[in-house]
């Protein structure tokens, strides 16, 4: 991955090639987005906007011809998120931006692209019917509003992952270890946490078209919880084995997700990492 990052940063043509070819595909779209975002993070808006602009062309083509807005919303979401991260140097601000873009994207699709949402719903309808038949009462009826919400969730998730990949590349090339430190220190302030929880509860209360929209507000809290776990393991010098065990347990034990979210909420108020003892130097 370092070699790819070095190739991207060799010049504008190389960055355009990786960004354009990546965004033009569905499988590697997030890599192409990360390439454009890397230039934005490192060289600023003037140079970054140039790469993002040309990467928009294949993204628009995929949305128009391939009827998939994913690469387009991901590119726009990641670009705005990266710009906020560059200007503020705060991951919390970047995460909130990603959520705002996801909510805005879902709202735009719901208001102006009902035909597209209906076509996506029609495409996945056979699979949904099979799932509902195998477990009656388990899976709710899916609407176009739910499809818009899921696209918004996808936009938030993949935008953040693309920015994280770009930030990791930037750290590898210009600031070794910097990305790890940023992740270890990532923490949402009480004000941000209250805002996210309030919007999440409001969307859940409204229900209807907006029942899945609250997931977008949960995602920064989950990321903050994962950062807390990494920070605690790093602060105590426990090693990667503990992280592997944690992630395995996270995918096996569903209640652990609730515990992770609660831990992130508590951490926003008391800063758990700051209260941990520093292990003695070896």
From TrEMBL:
Signal peptide: none
Keyword flag Membrane: yes
Domain of life: Bacteria
Residue ranges crossing the lipid bilayer per the database entry: 15-41, 48-70, 90-110, 147-169, 184-203, 210-229, 241-266
Keywords in alphabetical order: Membrane, Transmembrane, Transmembrane helix
Designated name of the protein: DUF2232 domain-containing protein
């Amino acid at each position: 991955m370092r070699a790819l990052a070095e190739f991207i940063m060799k010049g504008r043509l190389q960055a355009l090639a990786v960004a354009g070819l990546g965004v033009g595909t569905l499988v590697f779209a997030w890599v192409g987005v990360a390439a454009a975002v890397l230039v934005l993070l490192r060289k600023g808006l003037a140079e970054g906007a140039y790469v993002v602009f040309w990467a928009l062309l294949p993204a628009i083509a995929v949305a128009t011809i391939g009827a998939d807005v994913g690469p387009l919303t991901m590119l726009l979401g990641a670009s705005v998120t990266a710009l906020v991260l560059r200007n503020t140097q705060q991951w919390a601000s970047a995460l909130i931006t990603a959520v705002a873009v996801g909510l805005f994207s879902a709202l735009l699709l719901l208001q102006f692209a009902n035909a597209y949402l209906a076509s996506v719903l029609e495409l996945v309808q056979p699979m949904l019917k099979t799932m509902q038949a195998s477990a009656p009462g388990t899976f709710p009826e899916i609407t176009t509003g739910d499809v818009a919400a899921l696209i918004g969730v996808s936009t938030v998730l993949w935008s953040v992952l693309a920015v994280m990949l770009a930030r990791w590349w930037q750290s590898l090339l210009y600031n070794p270890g910097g990305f790890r430190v940023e992740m270890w220190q990532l923490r949402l302030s009480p004000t941000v946490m209250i805002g996210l929880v309030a919007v999440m509860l409001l969307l859940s209360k409204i229900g209807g078209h907006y029942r899945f929209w609250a997931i977008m507000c949960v995602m920064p809290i989950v990321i903050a919880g994962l950062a807390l776990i990494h920070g605690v393991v790093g602060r105590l010098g426990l090693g990667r084995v503990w992280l592997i065990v944690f992630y395995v347990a996270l995918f096996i034990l569903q209640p652990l997700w609730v515990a992770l979210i609660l831990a992130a909420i508590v951490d926003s108020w008391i800063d758990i990492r700051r209260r941990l003892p520093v292990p003695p130097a070896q």
